[in-house]
Structure formats: structure tokens, C-alpha cells
Amino acid sequence: MSRFRMYPTSAQQVSLLEQCGHARYVWNLALEQWSSWTRDTRHAPNFTVQCRQLTEARAVFGWLRAGSQTVQQQALRDFDQAVKNFYAGTHRKPTWRKAGLNDGFRIVGSQASRMLKLNRKWAKVNVPKVGWVRFRLSRTIPDAKSYRVTRDRAGHWHLAFAVRPEPIPAPGTGEVVGIDRGITVSAALSTGDLLTCPRLSEREQRRLKHLQQRLSRCRRGSNRRRRVMAAIAKLHALARDRRRDWVEKTSTDLARRFDIIRVEDLPIAQMTRRPKPKPDLSRPGASMPNGRRAKAGLNRGILANGWGLLVQRLEHKAAARVERVNPAFTSQTCSACGHRAPENRESQSVFRCAACGHRANADVNAAINIAAGRAVRARRETPPRVSPKREPQHATSA
After folding, report:
1. SS3 132
2. What are the backbone dihedrals phi and psi of residue 187, each rounded to the nearest 5 degrees, phi first?
3. Do β-strands 187-189 and 131-136 pair in parallel, antiparallel, or remain unpaired?
4. What's the average model confidence in pLDDT over 35-63?
């Protein structure tokens, strides 16, 4: 998806927010109709019936008639496609859209092509009921038939085109690289390179902690709480933009340098789930410690390093050249002799083979195993532990 930063004026921001509110209202109304359908009632209205209902509603309500009919009908069309995707098993169930979290709308058809290039750095797009809005030309505008206007939590407006760029051609050198993803080191390559995803600086982290403390003392619904939440959202948006920029640059570099890219097949969605509470049987209504805080820190580390986004962009740019490898025992297997044992991993960063004495960075050693595909062919030379057998106790005669 190609995304551009928009710079609307104050009056245009008010109009854009009204359009977002109309699209959100229509979406939620269609979701309510679909959710209330049961086997004992009539079928929920389809897209054609909902468009007819929208026309009747626009004739009655002036605030809805003041918005763009194209935006509102497209919200109904998007919801209809979301329901079809849910029944097809490719997407999740449609959910409610909330103000401040899901602000956006889509423009299709001839109105999506109304753009004008101002100079080398700036262009403008004609948004219905809003007017010409400027946006930054950070890349070439793709040839798309639709675009989406969105607003993030930090208050930044974006213009996104739902197009997938052409894959990067393979260099033809036959080189293979393995990537081991981690928390301390975001991505370790089998070539020995250690890549780290940029995060917030120490000063920014201290400011984030201070703002979170202020947020806990603010009264709900107050103007001060909204200002503090906006400041926190800006810091999170800054970290997100840095992570996306790093992922784009890293994935492009890897797709240009290597023919085959092998990564671990990690279930990130399952790895970042919250731990389930453990009920304490001795105390009804109480729970036992389940490592919730430690797991929350691990989840934040996984998401902050962009594990899933890196592989996703690699599969887009290096199509049919990304291979997923079973991650079993890649960090315990020696890349020199193939010996596998838990004691080979001395620490988080040090690997020392107990059989041949090979020493290397633990993440680089795992990346070499991934590049060679040794995760599924790793052999175990350490004999399995056998519990000592107990001698049978014979009864003694009294």
C-alpha cells in the first residue's frame, strides 16, 4: 500500500472529520442490521436494499445529506465485501468502528482520479465535499482506481492507494540468506550482520513515561486528558513510522541482494496472546500468578521489532523467493558440526558448541541454520537422559 502524508487546512480537517463520521455511522448501522439477523428472523438487507435505505435517510436527515453520497455508499459496499470475506474464511468478523480509532473513508470511480501535481514535492487531490487537499509526494503516485483517506491517533492525515508494487527482480547470484528474528537484535543475518529496529530514544521514553503518569491522574472526559492522550499518540506514531521505515529499507535491501530468503515460520499471533488467568482453587474468586507482566514485556518487544511486518514486506517484494523454515532447535544446533544440545546456548548472545567448541554469536548461528535448512534435519548427538531405575523392594520376613 502506497501512503502519502496529507496536509489539510483547519477548515478542511473539520470537513474531513465530518466525512469520517458519516462513513462510520453508515458502517455501524449496516453492522447493527447484520448482527441482529438470526435464523428465526428475515435475512439482513443486502447492499442494494441498504443503498435504497440510505437514499431515504438522506432525504430525511439534513446532516447526512450534507455529506458525500459517494463516501456513504462506498462504506456500505466495503461492509458488504467485509461480510463476504468473513463467510469465505479469509478475514475476521466485521467489528464496530469508533471515533478516534477508525477515522477514514474511501473514494472510488472517476472522483479518485482528480489529482494535480503542483511541483516536484507537492500535489493535491480533490476530495468530495472538502475540496483540493495538498499531500506530500514522497514517491511516485501509483495508477490506482481508488484511494482511502485516513487519520491516525496522532491526528495525521494520510492518502493511501491500495496497490501492490511490482516485485523486485532477483539478482541471479544464487546466494541464500537466513534471518533470525529476536528481541535484542531485531534481525540477525547468516552473513553476520546484526540489524536493529530503531525505537524511541531514552529522552523520548522518559517523556512517554511521564505522560503516562500524568494520564493516570487526569479526570476522564477532561480537556487535559485529551491533550495528554494526543501527546502520547504522537510518540507512538513516531515509533511506528521509524519501524515502518526500517522495515521498508531492510526488506528492499534483502530482496536486491539475495535470491532465496529463509525465515522462521513463527506463529506471531499466538506468541503475542495474553496469558490466561490461573484460578486459585484454595481461594474462590482469586487468581494465581501467571507471569502476566513478563509476558506483556515480551509481547511489546516482539511487536516493536516488526517481526510480522518484515516477513510480509519480504513476501511482497521478493515474491516466490521467501521460504519459511521450521524454527525447532535452530538456536541449540551448532552450525559447524550439527551437534544439538540445550547447553550449547550459554547466554542470549553467546553460542559455544559442547562437542566441537565452535563459538559464535547465538543469533548469527541460528540464522546460519535457517539458511541451510537445518531446522528440520538437525540431529541430536547428546544421548537422552534416562531416569535411574529403582530397585524393587522385597518384603522381608518378620
Report:
1. strand
2. -150, 120
3. unpaired
4. 86
- Give the cell for residue 33: 442490521
Beta pairing class for 359-361 and 350-352: antiparallel
Q: What dihedral do alpha carbons 376, 378, 384, 385 form, nearest 10°?
A: -90
Average pLDDT over residues 155-183: 89
Q: What is the mean pLDDT of residues 161-183?
A: 88
Determine how many CB atoms are found less than 10 A away from the CB of residue 133.
21
Single out the residue of 391, 251, 274 nearest to residue 321, CA to CA: 251
Coil, helix or strand for 127?
strand
Tell me the residue type at 256.
R
Residue 309 half-sphere exposure toward CB, CA atoms < 13 A: 19
Q: State the average pLDDT for the chain.
A: 87
E strands, the chain, are 2-6, 103-108, 115-117, 122-127, 131-136, 146-151, 157-161, 176-181, 187-189, 194-195, 260-264, 278-279, 287-288, 322-325, 350-352, 359-361
**290, three cell numbers:** 501467571
Pairing, β 176-181 against β 260-264: parallel
Q: What's 154's DSSP letter?
A: T
Cβ–Cβ < 8 Å for 3, 158: yes
What local confidence, expressed as pLDDT, does residue 123 receive?
93
- Residue with grid cell 537466513, as numbered in its chain: 178
Residue type at 42 in one-letter notation? R
Pairwise CA distance, residues 35 & 294, whole Å:
37
**Residue 139, Cβ density class (10 Å: 0-12 exposed, 13-18 middle, ≥19 buried):** exposed
149: how many CB neighbours lie within 10 A of its CB? 25
Helix residue spans in 45-130 (DSSP H): 47-60, 62-65, 69-88
Per-residue model confidence as pLDDT tens digits over 231-257: 999 999 999 999 999 999 999 999 999
Residue 134 Cα distances to 68, 123, 380, angstroms: 20, 6, 62
Span 104-118, pLDDT tens digits? 999 987 777 788 889
216, 258, 335 from 175: Cα distances, Å: 52, 5, 17
Q: How far apart are CA 333 and CA 341, in angstroms?
A: 7
Report CA 341 to chain centroid distance, whole Å: 34
CA pair distance 161, 139, nearest whole angstrom: 12
